[in-house]
Amino acid sequence: MQAAAIKHPQQTLWFEQALLPEGWASGVRLRIESGRIADIRTGQPARAAEACDAVALPGLPNLHSHAFQRGMAGLAEVRGASADSFWTWRELMYRFVDRMSPDDLEAIAAQAYVEMLEHGFTRVGEFHYLHHDVAGRGYADPAEMATRLVAAAQKTGIGLTLLPVFYAHGGFCGAPVSAAQARFVNDLDGYARLLEASGRALAVLPDAVLGVAPHSLRAVTPEQLDAVQRLLPQGPVHIHIAEQSAEVEQCLAWSGQRPVDWLLRAQAVDARWCLVHATHMSAAEASAMAASGAVAGLCPITEANLGDGLFPVVDYAGADGRWGLGTDSNVRIDAAEELRLFEYGQRLQARARNVLAPATGGSTGRRLFDAAVTGGAQALGVSAGLRVGARADLFSLDTERPEFASRRLDAWLDAWIFAGSPMPLRHVWRAGVQWVRAGRHVQAEAVAADYRSALARILE
């Protein structure tokens, strides 16, 4: 399927209410030029023949995705011979990618990106580690698989922050990789070539961002970690860390330190870093991570699905830590559910309600949403929110639905996150282009057909 032509017409959009960085505003007119917000006026009446809607919200960044895993969603829900865990799930994932071609990756990624846009995610951080062919050999173009992710983003319209992953070892102390990991592995020279080729592939997307992603402390040596983050001094740096308790125990055995503690001591972690999961932290680690300015990359649906555990948000938020949301394994793609499950997990742990609400009388939904927008944008290297100069990435709520009856302003967010029925979003614009109309992506049918064909090839 050919990518849809992307046009960025000069236009205006008018909303009865819009959530701007400074808060809710009425009668909001956005003037959009070349995909960016050129002007914002408030207190404006609607004009005849102008595109109008009720409620506008800034698009959400999805800071952590493995798009190809969308194709295996639901396949790991059968009990194995032994106790199931992240590690047994990983073995199934290795088998799933064993037959995946570049065409298959493009088709599956496009399906994931369509669903992300339909649920309000307008930019994705693609933590991309499927680099080589099924035999573990490099393609003629080191960025062949990355190029397919770019094609999927171009086809569907989603913003892309590409995070090519450096993966060199199968465990701490430079342990060798397994045969199942051969498609992921590079040495430093190969990774540098991959990064350069990925940058060229991204040139077709006008607002793409390139970052680096050392996979995890168990997959890189300290020397490699230092070298990788220096390859792109100004770009985002993402790393899996402290996702599993076994990983913490292995790190303690290797270094005598917990993973986040070790990283913060070994590297100059700052605002360009995203520490993905960081589930198993001590209170001291949480405070130190918050002080670094890094973003915690939280993926509540995946973390629940894999049985990872709950992020220590009380300690972290109490230290003004920044966080954003990702869909990770893409077992289910639903922005509102990610936000809801994050809060609900904390409620179950604390046996309290409105754990993340800002203060007495403050809206939990608003706090969740604002944090996800701000932290996610920081992690993906873009501007946050509806502001002049930013990309025109936004969505509108279908306020005619019953769950929004007699609600306004922050109560709309609370209703969407905690009481919304499926597909309460109405329209979605990415860089000023309307990719979702009445809850449905404009390329949904064609993309789904390619997706079904890809899965038939992989799973036959």
Automatic annotation (TrEMBL):
Enzyme class label: hydrolase
EC nos: 3.5.3.13
A GO MF label: formimidoylglutamate deiminase activity
Coiled coil, from the record: none
Amidohydrolase-related domain location: 56-432
Family annotation (NCBIfam families): hutF (TIGR02022), PRK09229.1-2 (NF006681), PRK09229.1-4 (NF006683), PRK09229.1-5 (NF006684)
Name assigned to this protein: Formimidoylglutamate deiminase
Domain (Formimidoylglutamate deiminase N-terminal): residue spans on this chain: 16-50
Cofactor(s) recorded in Swiss-Prot or TrEMBL: Zn(2+)
Keyword NAD carried by entry: no
One Pfam family in the UniProt entry: HutF_N
Keywords noted in UniProt: Hydrolase, Metal-binding, Zinc
